Amino acid sequence: MEEPVVIGHDKFKIGEDETAKRELRVVKVHDDVIQIQEEVHGIIALVGASSSVNIKKDELKQLIKIAKEKFGWSDLCE
After folding, report:
1. Would strands 19-30 and 49-56 be described as parallel, antiparallel, or unpaired?
2. Is the dihedral of CA 27, 29, 34, 40 positive or negative?
3. Strand boundaries in 1-78, DSSP class E
4. What's the pLDDT tens digit per position in 7-65?
5. How are strands ordered across the β-sheet holding 33-41?
6. Which of 10, 19, 24, 58 has a 20 to 30 Å separation from 33 between CA atoms?
7. Neighbour count for residue 34 (Cβ, 10 Å)
8. Where are the alpha helices (H) located in 5-77, listed in sequence order?
9. pTM for the predicted model, two decimal places
């Protein structure tokens, strides 16, 4: 499997003195499948947590279509 590409990285405040860190990465699993990984570290996850989703090429096209039509993300390409 290839190295993930980081597409998002941010910190957010969850309490007066507590900050959580979040990172979103994409990795190619197969020619027509990508995996999106989100890792959150901080008090919410205690030691950390991660989840992932496999997306086929045609599913991504549908996701883009839904994001454009339902969420108004008109700057996405097909």
Report:
1. unpaired
2. negative
3. 5-13, 19-30, 33-41, 49-56
4. 888 888 877 888 888 888 888 888 888 888 888 887 655 566 677 777 889 988 888 88
5. 5-13, 19-30, 33-41, 49-56
6. 10
7. 17
8. 57-71
9. 0.64
